[in-house]
Amino acid sequence: MVVVAVIAALVGALSGSWFMHTRNSPPSDFGADAGFSRDMQAHHAQAVEMALLVRERSDDEELRTVAYDILTSQQQQAGQMYGWLVQWGLPQTGSGEPMAWVGEDHAKAHTRPDGTMPGMASRALLDELRAADGLAAERLFLTLMIAHHEGGVAMADAALAQARTTEVRTLAAAISSAQASEITLLQRMLDERG
Prior knowledge:
Elements: H1 2-24, H2 32-57, H3 61-87, H4 104-110, H5 123-131, H6 134-162, H7 166-192
Helix pairs in contact: 2-3, 2-6, 5-6, 6-7
């Protein structure tokens, strides 16, 4: 009886130790936490670029304010994700393709045929935004940012379902909620511009 109790206590202690080790160990280089942090930084960088471009090309104060909110919030979030990767001892860039962290079964649903992340504007569309001015720039920005946010929501929802750290799940939920709300605002602004 004593032997059984000692074995049970030893198994319990080892299980608790293993659980604490896995819970406190840094995320995997190939897991959703690191993958989302890397991919969303790149995704946010493009949103910041587009927001800066439209602020230079529009006199509409509401649109300039929305663009400023996008660029400041997404730059802050990108810095947060950069910091996590540093804290976890992981490189800022991974060896896998974008969105590889969603798993093979879901990768096709989360990447475009050209292999880019959902919602990313092509280089040609960014060049078009750079060349546009006034109302044309506003319409193009709003169209691109709606698609960009739809992609961001899809990425955040995938991270929310797969990430193992509380901080990544919390940020993913905040991104999903904020960008879904902004899509409504951006669509209203686009509708107003015909």
